[in-house]
Amino acid sequence: MSTYLPTLKQLQYLVALKEHGHFGRAADACFVTQSTLSAGLRELESLIGVTLVERTRRVVRFTALGDRIVAKARRVLREAEELSDLARAAGKPLAGELRMSVIPTIAPFLLPRVLPRLRSDWPDLRLYLREEPSAAACDSLAHGHADCVLLALPYACGDVDSDVLFEDRLLVAFPGAEAATMGDTVHPNAIDEDRLLLLEDGHCLKDHALAACNRPELRAGATMLGTSLHTLVQMVDNGLGLTMLPEMAIAAGILDHTSICAKPLESDHPSRKIALAWRRGSPREKEFRLLADVLRVANG
């Protein structure tokens, strides 16, 4: 066995440089100076006797071996983090630091209801929240930047376990002036693809809405807008089309001060499942399931 082994800090520097592609940004992410990070990487290369990164004025380029070592470094750092998780899981539940990513079509509507309950019932929990789209949230989970993810299923999030919190119905939202022409529910065949407004690619709500309608042609005909449900609401309120909204957003008041009417979708699968997900095999699984129970109860 070699007397000299890479340190976790050196591996963190290497992974950060790979993720950011820039020495300055990588150093900021590691909360060190650029010179400290650069020196740590040179020390690592000297230690193992190979070049991992080709440095030029404009480009940071990893060697083939460097890429392979980055992949291994990520696994080593994950295992090291799980050592701490083991100790934490054996202690007081829902205490200490927990990093949770939440997708944008859940965060502003669910968190205001559940965070006060978490603060009052679990005062020792230091919850760090990050709002990001589903793909980025699952990537953060896979790379160890997040401990768990609050997202909507179905969604392919990698090698994870999850606990479903509740079903979130999808409703069709249209200008109030059209309410007289609609029944109590809206059949997917009644949706005009030329007027349908949906979130852009990267938001799983778009895929859930299209799947609920079970009309493949809507994907090509739908007018894609920005990343915000609030923007879609304003467009609909001004007569520019119709959209589909999750019930949690409506319950949170997203339609307040508008003339929009929202009615349930008449479909075999008119909802999405809100779930908490974590890396499969995590030693904190019991803690995550407890958190899921707390979120479920706090949501009412």
UniProtKB/TrEMBL annotation:
- The answer to whether keyword Lipid biosynthesis applies is no
Its protein name is: LysR family transcriptional regulator
Which organism is this entry from? Sphingomonas sanxanigenens DSM 19645 = NX02
Entry coiled-coil feature ranges: none
**Entry's PROSITE patterns?**
HTH_LYSR
**What's a Pfam family this protein contains?**
LysR_substrate
InterPro entries per UniProt: LysR_HTH_N, LysR_subst-bd, WH-like_DNA-bd_sf, WH_DNA-bd_sf
A Gene Ontology molecular function term of the record: DNA-binding transcription factor activity
Q: Which UniProt keywords apply?
A: DNA-binding, Transcription, Transcription regulation
Organism superkingdom: Bacteria
Where in this chain does the record put each HTH lysR-type domain? Answer: 6-63
GO CC annotation terms, alphabetical: protein-DNA complex
In the record, the note on similarity to other proteins reads: Belongs to the LysR transcriptional regulatory family.
